[in-house]
Amino acid sequence: IVLGAKLGQLGIGYTIVEKNKDVGGTWLENSYPGCGVDTPNHAYSLSFGQRYRWSRYFSLRDEIQDYLECCATEFGVRSHIRFQTTLTGAQWIESDHCWETELEGPDGKERFRSGYLVSAIGQFNQPRKPTIPGCETFQGEAFHSAHWPAELDLTNQRVSIIGTGASAMQIVPSIAKQVESLTIYQRTPQWVRPIPDYGELIPEGAQWLLEHLPYYVEWFRFTMFWRYGDGLLPYLRKDPDWPHPERALNRVNDRHRQEMVNFMSDQLKDHPDLAARSLPDYPAYGKRILLDNGWYRALTLPQVHLITDPIDQITESGILTTDNVHRSTDVLIYAIGFEMMQMASRLNIKGRGGVDLKDTWDGDNPTAYLGMTVPGYPNFFCLLGPNTGLGHGGSAMFQAECQTRYVTACLVRMIEENLASLEVRRDAHDNYVERVDKEHQQMIWSHPGMTTYYRNTRGRVVTVMPWRLVDYWEMTHEADLSCYHVEHRTRTTR
């Protein structure tokens, strides 16, 4: 939506291929109970366009979806979208300096040519498939949290949910009081941050300030980015002199840990057994930090059961854990996350010489200069690609704006200078990736002894970036074409 809006302003023609029936992406697809942002929505919104009157500081899914639909309409993007159409492959055509894509839509298959190709599929749109033995034998209702059935009624049902990540933490408090029983299967406990105003409506006085006081909304948006983003990042760096690296990275990180331990202890003060099973053994912020929306209170309900014994197998009627206890269930929910590592490589994109991007990225090791451009793939850009996620807090909206500015700057230069192709130099790419990896070695996400979707199978952090938001804004503010091989329509410059 952001890229389409800016291309429209520049008068550059574009076509968006969208597999769903409407805009929204992950917010269209995920409709489970309690679904919403864990980023303040004044930061999880664009810096341009009409101001949206958010009802809450942390909005639920329907309001975010409505905002995105409004943006697509306001910016004139809808008329450029081919809905229910899938890109099944793309090939760089060297002789014509263009991309030829294979599309499959309501009218069948076709080939489509364009001067440039942009992947904007994000990192949270391919639900992870369960691999637990016996999962195909279960006879009840089973589904991934991203595929929540529209007419599902959980009243007086025995429900099991596998996973205790962000989705589960929103689902559990939302359904706990309507079910007969709710059994939660936890592999790893999560750090939970208390947010007093998480579910509160924005008071009318604050709404008046946001609507009528000049620059107040910009200031408020900036403070949200600082409080939930760049203000935290310095305290996620390893202090080599810190004496307790097993529990924290530094003194401030240890203080944050203790604050969350105190909150958990207070919430579970009458349930020491739950407190013991809910205490993580890795530093705070080592994994995606989660916000409390009644999670601990839900765990104390008599019909809610937290199971920490590993799952042995799924049977026709329930789940068997390794302690040889079988628990029957009517509904099985997989809150097991998404396939994060493939990114654009699952789109069957072939660059120079027909080399497939999945081979270039060696399966689960995606890399890109500034998270956007890859050697061997001219005129190709990734939005929210490798190492551009935000582990320390921030907003995908902010990243989309930074990257859109960079991509459009490249396109404008290419048009003005009559360039046929733009391909990042191998040395520029490798130097950038080396900087990213070196910085990550000093950050919390490379801490040993924990698993996280931020890291691939070889231990490298590939999804999140180590930079502050302001650093990445500066890196992407202007397009430096000296980092690229540029090919003119009449001659080649190396």
Describe the secondary-structure layout.
Layout: H1 2-10, E1 16-17, H2 26-29, H3 61-74, E2 81-82, E3 86-93, E4 98-105, E5 108-114, E6 117-119, E7 141-144, E8 158-162, H4 166-175, E9 181-185, E10 192-193, H5 204-212, H6 216-230, H7 251-267, H8 272-277, E11 290-291, H9 295-299, E12 304-307, E13 311-314, E14 318-321, E15 326-328, E16 331-334, E17 349-350, H10 357-360, E18 380-382, H11 396-416, E19 419-424, H12 426-440, H13 469-476, E20 484-488, E21 492-493
Parallel strand pairs: 1-2, 3-17, 6-18, 7-16, 8-9, 8-16, 9-12, 10-11
Antiparallel strand pairs: 3-4, 4-5, 13-14, 14-15, 19-20, 20-21
Helix pairs in contact: 1-11, 11-13
What do these coordinates show?
The protein is of the alpha/beta class and 494 residues long. 28% of the residues lie in helices and 17% in strands. It has 13 helices and 21 strands. The protein has helices at 2-10, 26-29, 61-74, 166-175, 204-212, 216-230, 251-267, 272-277, 295-299, 357-360, 396-416, 426-440, 469-476, and strands at residues 16-17, 81-82, 86-93, 98-105, 108-114, 117-119, 141-144, 158-162, 181-185, 192-193, 290-291, 304-307, 311-314, 318-321, 326-328, 331-334, 349-350, 380-382, 419-424, 484-488, 492-493. The strands form 7 sheets. A 5-stranded parallel beta sheet has the order 7-16-8-9-12, with no helix packed on it. Strands 5-4-3-17 form a 4-stranded mixed beta sheet, with no helix packed on it. Helix 1 runs parallel beside helix 11 (396-416) and helix 11 packs parallel to helix 13. The radius of gyration is 24 Å and the shape is globular. The mean pLDDT is 95.
